[in-house]
Amino acid sequence: MIRNYLKIAWRNLYKSKIFSLIHIMGLTIGITVCMMIFLYIMNEFSVDRFHKQGKNIYRVMRGFDKKMSRAPYLSAPYAQALLTDFPADIKDAVRVWKTNFLVSFGDKAFDERRVYVADADFFKVFSFPLLKGNAATALKDPGSVVLTRNIAEKYFGSVDNAMGKTISFDKVRPMKVTGVSVNVPSNSHMDFDMVNTLSSFPDRANGKIWINNFLFTYLLLSPNTDPAKLEAKFPQFMDKYMGKDMASLGIHQDLKITPLTDIYFEPASAFDDVKHGDKTVVYIFISIAVLIMLIACINFMNLSTLRAVERSKEVGLRKVLGAVRNHLVSQFIGESVLLAVISSILSIGLLFALLPTYNNILGYSLTVNWDSWYIYAFLGGVILFVGVLAGSYPAFVLSAFSPIDALKGKLRLGKGGAFFRQALVVVQFSISVFLIIGTIVIMNQMHYVKNKSLGYDQAQTVIVQIDNGDIYNHMKVFKTELENTPGVASVSLMSGEPGGFFDIHSFEAEGQTQTFKPRTEFADFEYVKTLGLKVIAGRDFSPLFPSDSLNSVLINATAAKKLGFSPDQAVGKWIKNTLRDDHKRRIVGVVQDFNFLSLKENMDALVISPYEDRRVIVIKLKPGNISESLNEIKKVYAQVAPVFPFEYTFLDQKFATIYKADIRQQTIMSIFAGLAIFIACLGLFGLASFTAAKRTKEIGVRKVLGSSVQNILLLLSRDMLKPVGIATIIAIPLGYSFTNMWLQNFAYRTPLAWWIFVLAAGVTFAIALITVSFQSLKAALANPVKSLRTE
Q1: Is residue 100 within 8 Å of 298, Cβ to Cβ?
Q2: Which of 132, 99, 127 is nearest to 113 (CA)?
Q3: Average pLDDT for 353-382
Q4: Which of 12, 20, 37, 18 is closest to 675 using CA atoms?
Q5: How far apart are CA 785 and CA 780, in angstroms?
Q6: Torsion over CA of 731, 732, 735 and 741, rounded to 10 degrees?
Q7: How far apart are CA 103 and CA 167, in angstroms?
Q8: pTM, 2 dp
Q9: Within 51-91, where are the H helices?
Q10: Do the strands 166-169 and 130-132 form a parallel or antiparallel pair, or are they unpaired?
Q11: Measured distance CA(316)–CA(140) in Å, rounded
Q12: Rg (CA), the chain
């Protein structure tokens, strides 16, 4: 019987090639999208869950302001103090310092930016298996380094050749390769190419200054430790070790611990530069998968129901010959399952073909274990869902036909069936319009962010990081040489460029009873000139006032407002950085607000001080030959830092970095919206084909009675486009609501203008009209004589 069912199913598929192609194409695309999103979701929710001791690993987070995100950076003494004070609760502690080095060997050199410097137990606590070497001893001795497989092969050709080799950090620190680890998987919040032992840097490892925060500190808790009870002991711990510092600086800090598996989905911030995910994006992906799969299933149900009339005589004959309804339902559901199986097989092939492109869009390679049961369980679930649930309605409709009416050819689906089909089309296109609105809004917001005036001049501005000893020791010489270069307009040394890192410091300020906590920038006298800022009160730093270096600061307009002054009133007031200054400084000028943070954040107070803390060099180029100016900068860099490669970025490239996740959302939404409307139009095409075929005689009569091609085209298209219009009316308020929620992520956002919804409706109608018109025009142009002979 089953063999007979399969044979009949295959014959029906082969007989109706167009409908079968539409069925399979729609389902294949829908299942492929679902599989792609499923792999992404599984990857997101599997982050850091591969560590064997993961349930007992926590990262220590430091709080310094209730209004701001916590920071993961601690100073060197914390780890040992925590182990000493809580021996029963904490089994081990590992510190991790993220940094970069020039790695060289022989005549080769590489600027490696993903270097971890960690305590010796790093590979004992975390489950990054070593291909070569011993996890317990690989980082035991000073001068030891463990490479990842990629780096080992990049440097020495193979894993085996790498062992025992010596490489040099910054040309001065020899390091011996004592191990080779697996590559860090994409489902890890950590990301490194090599791990060096912290004991190689005794000044860092054994530091005693509690306020010098630069390390991540991970704790391995004892199995029976209650994290909440441990946290309750931290206030006393902080008073013991940080009490005097906090009192003298006028600050308050506390500690919390975050489970390893929760780190990835913690809100990303400027104070935490590990890899973070966004649950909102994950939920958006899940919603898109469900919506696209729903569109594909609606296609399946609609087209299968429409074919019921064509198969009515088959059903009637089988009933007359003794077939019972259950057998007929099984037959038709079996056909649905067969279609779903064929589509699933095709979708797997399509998935493998698209996976490299998909990884490129995501920005990383998905960690996929193709031996995992859950992948095939998901596919099986999709087949059952599509085959049984989506196929059940057409199956019951077909099996319920009266055999007498079916054999007489008097069978009609009725108004109820037509209404149901129209409702399904409305759902399909509501989803499509909704996704198109989302895509347009994201694109419009990204365009707004990219083109918004930020209050500073970012054109032709080069950023060079102060990230090695040579450039740090010779940065003033580098600056002086550049200022004498023809293509350079100005140069400024600063602690952070716009869009970069701006630390929060505590200040005492005139007229304030509470500690003032603005963002801070430490820069030289050329800061305002180089960034093109506008001084709206007072003056800029000036060499004509030598005391500015020690006694002066600039603030922005928001800082003046938060201090309770107008810009003019703020000039002359004193302010003191409790961490960096031992004396008061005077506000000599107020600059107009500029967006030094992401546009997702509100404008914040900023204090600009000439205090020596230089981390980047910002170079403003003169208009003209940019490449020639860059070559001149490169020559000067080679003079002051000859062993290090010259690396730079442009300030206007910060856009792509800061909004990388949002641009990725825009790309993915655009692709999926396009696929959604393509699948919907496949169904609409099938529906139009069926309608045109069933109204062939009517069209012939109308043409004989004088109807023009235009009138017939309008008649057919109008009936088919009605559900599209209803779908648009439903989708617009839903699209408005959800996109308005998404825009709340931005402090600066574009309004939801009326044209966005008109454009979405217009695009949908245009695509639907083209789809419907093809079949409608074909029917309208047919010879009426042939049309009247069809019955």
Answers
A1: no
A2: 99
A3: 82
A4: 37
A5: 13
A6: -140
A7: 7
A8: 0.80
A9: 77-85
A10: unpaired
A11: 82
A12: 34
